[in-house]
Amino acid sequence: MKNWNGLKKLKNIKNKTLIIWGDQDKSYNFDQVDVLNKNIKNSELKIFKGCSHNTHLEKPEEFNDYVKKFLQK
Question: E strand or H helix at 23, and its extent?
């Protein structure tokens, strides 16, 4: 796995994809999230301010509302 890179495979994702990131996340930096957003054609990036890696636990109502709206599109 050390040399594995799935970047080329991201272009194969055709479904609408919601990428959620907390601006205080220490697990994934913004550059990693930006690569996903730029390479998944139908992606949407939502950044939650003041959240780390567990946005769904830190701001559950806001998280759930956003996911619901995304799914209704």
Answer: none
**22, exposed or middle or buried, with CB in 10 Å at 0-12, 13-18, 19+?**
buried
Which pLDDT score is estimated for 1? 62
Q: If we measure between CA atoms, which residue out of 33, 37, 36 comes closest to residue 21?
A: 33
28 contacts 53 by C-beta, under 8 angstroms: yes
Q: Which residue, 54, 38, 46, 44, is CA-closest to 15?
A: 44
Report pTM. Answer: 0.87
In the chain, the amino acid numbered 24 is Q
